[in-house]
């Protein structure tokens, strides 16, 4: 809850710094997301969607601050393998992580139409689902079997909070319509931590640390 207030507090605090009246708008576009591959053999990028609202508050003639509230689809296509004395299990899955994301971008306007931006992003997990195939092979190269599964709820395995930093640029075709591209690098481990009976802390991915990363491109419209 404190993390939620932190993100919303940064959004509300931008009003105090605005030099002129802020403008509001809508934005939407494509996410090409991935997860750092620690613990995954062949993590690949996955396409998703983002969309939401923003407020742009000018701080001076060249600088502005833009908080946003977005519904953003992260995740990756992953392959994970683990082996026991009796068998080897290979999971191939498409992992879908949906967040309410709150980026707070500080923008520098090199020209009236072109800008670059950077700032933190706070994410709050809404859902986590996986679908794919599981192949089990008996030890020593024995018989194997494959089972498919769909829409498995994985939310209990992932942290409810995500934080990253965004770096991007944009161009406004008109005072109302623009295009934006941004890369968001994750800072926090997406795996939920748990405490063992011996008092140690571990995660649901064999103590590996995984982070969300995504490239975004889309359109924005100011009212």
CATH topology of one domain: Porin
Q: Specify the overall morphology.
A: elongated
CATH class of one domain: Mainly Beta
Sheet with the most strands: spatial strand order: 1-2-3-4-5-7-8-11
Which CATH architecture of one domain? Beta Barrel
* Rg from Cα: 21 Å
Number of strands: 11
Structural class by helix and strand composition? mainly beta
List segments where confidence is low: pLDDT < 50 over at least 5 consecutive residues.
none
The major sheet is characterized as: 8 strands, antiparallel, barrel
- Give the proportion of residues in helices: under 10%
Strand/helix succession: HEEEEEEEEEEE
User: What's the end-to-end separation, in Å?
Assistant: 31 Å
Sum this structure up briefly.
7% of the residues lie in helices and 65% in strands.
Structure description:
- The protein is mainly beta.
- It has a domain at 2-17 and 35-76 and 95-128 and 159-195 and 211-222: Porin (Beta Barrel), CATH 2.40.160.
- Helices cover 7% and strands 65% of the residues.
- The chain has one helix at 2-17, and strands at 23-35, 46-58, 63-83, 87-109, 114-138, 144-153, 161-172, 177-186, 193-195, 201-203, 212-222.
- The strands form two sheets. Strands 1-2-3-4-5-7-8-11 form an eight-stranded antiparallel β-barrel. Strands 9-10 form a two-stranded antiparallel ribbon.
- Strand 4 and strand 5 (114-138) form a beta hairpin.
- The longest helix has 16 residues, at 2-17.
- The model has no long low-confidence stretch (mean pLDDT 85).
């Amino acid at each position: 809850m404190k993390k939620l207030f932190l993100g919303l507090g940064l959004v509300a605090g931008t009003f105090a710094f605005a030099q002129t009246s802020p403008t509001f708008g809508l934005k939407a576009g494509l996410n090409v997301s991935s997860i750092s591959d620690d613990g995954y053999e062949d993590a690949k990028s996955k396409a998703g969607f983002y969309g939401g609202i923003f407020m742009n508050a000018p701080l001076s003639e060249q600088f502005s601050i833009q908080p946003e509230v977005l519904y953003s689809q992260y995740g990756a296509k992953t392959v994970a393998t683990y082996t026991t004395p009796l068998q080897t299990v290979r999971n191939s899955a498409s992992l879908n992580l949906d967040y309410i994301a709150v980026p707070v971008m500080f923008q520098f306007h090199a020209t009236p139409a072109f800008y670059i931006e950077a700032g933190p992003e706070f994410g709050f997990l809404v859902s986590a689902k996986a679908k794919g195939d599981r192949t089990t092979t008996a030890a020593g190269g024995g018989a194997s079997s494959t089972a498919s599964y769909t829409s498995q709820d994985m939310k209990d395995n992932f942290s409810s909070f995500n934080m990253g930093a965004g770096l991007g640029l944009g161009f406004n075709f008109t005072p109302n319509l623009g295009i934006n591209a941004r890369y968001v690098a994750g800072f926090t481990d997406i795996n939920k931590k748990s405490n063992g009976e011996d008092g140690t802390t571990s995660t649901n991915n064999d103590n590996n640390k995984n982070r969300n990363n995504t490239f975004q491109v889309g359109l924005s419209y100011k009212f």
